[in-house]
Design brief:
alpha/beta; five-stranded parallel beta sheet; globular
Length: about 220
């Protein structure tokens, strides 16, 4: 099956060039010109990667990225037009996988897309203990019944197995607010753990790092 890419870009000339180049490389491309229609497309079906323009008529690509990250860990790449935007992509932890600055060569975008997809497939293989499909997660083959926040936490941890996420980072990515009480994260991790434990009492894939945060460990 062809990898599917969602392109959210309001400038038709840029979108056309990219759609053409990506299709020539064997990708299926869906183009949306607005953040809102892009979100709707993401809700309708699965994509392997999304490319977001930072400057969209109905909001910034950064806001859109935040919105997408509430429910999805799809690989994201930004198209930026200004150096100040690049600083934000690089400097802030907004959950993007890569960016290219305009003007860019379509060939470069295609190469970056392939690199990101290769990397995310590697992650997919490592996370076979968990299977993610259309926003639902199976653990050891069993569908997990999770609350919105438990799901969010697990999705963030699954995005980079082995990486330690601080409570603030988890709070920011899942709740979109780093100022709430630290306990909130701990409470939801506890209930999430209990659900995983029910399925396989032998394993505890969520590791606590005292004073640092939590990580997902896929090897016992
Ligand atoms: Ca634009």
């Amino acid at each position: 099956m062809k990898p599917a890419i969602l392109l959210i870009e309001d400038e038709a000339a840029i979108a056309d060039t990219l759609v053409y180049a990506l299709q020539a490389e064997g990708f299926e491309v869906v183009w949306r010109a607005l953040g809102q229609t892009g979100l709707a497309a993401l809700a309708e079906r699965d994509f392997d990667l999304a490319i977001l323009d930072v400057g969209l008529p109905d909001g910034s690509g950064f806001e859109l990225c935040k919105e997408i990250r509430k429910t999805s860990e799809i690989p994201l790449m930004f198209l930026t037009a200004r150096a100040s935007e690049i600083d934000r992509v690089v400097g802030l932890e907004i959950g993007a996988d890569d960016y290219v600055a305009k003007p860019f060569s379509p060939r470069e975008v295609c190469a970056r897309v392939k690199t990101i997809l290769k990397r995310s497939r590697g992650t997919a293989a490592r996370t076979a203990l968990f299977q993610v499909d259309a926003g639902r997660i199976r653990y050891c083959g069993q569908l997990l019944s999770l609350t919105r926040y438990e799901l969010g936490l697990l999705q963030v941890l699954l995005s980079q197995p082995g990486r330690i996420f601080s409570r603030d980072q988890l709070m920011d990515r899942v709740w979109g607010d780093a100022d709430a009480f630290d306990r909130t994260v701990d409470t939801h991790i506890k209930t999430l753990r209990a659900k995983l434990h029910q399925i396989d009492p032998q394993r505890d894939p969520i590791a606590t790092h005292r004073g640092l945060g939590y990580s997902l460990q896929l090897t016992p």
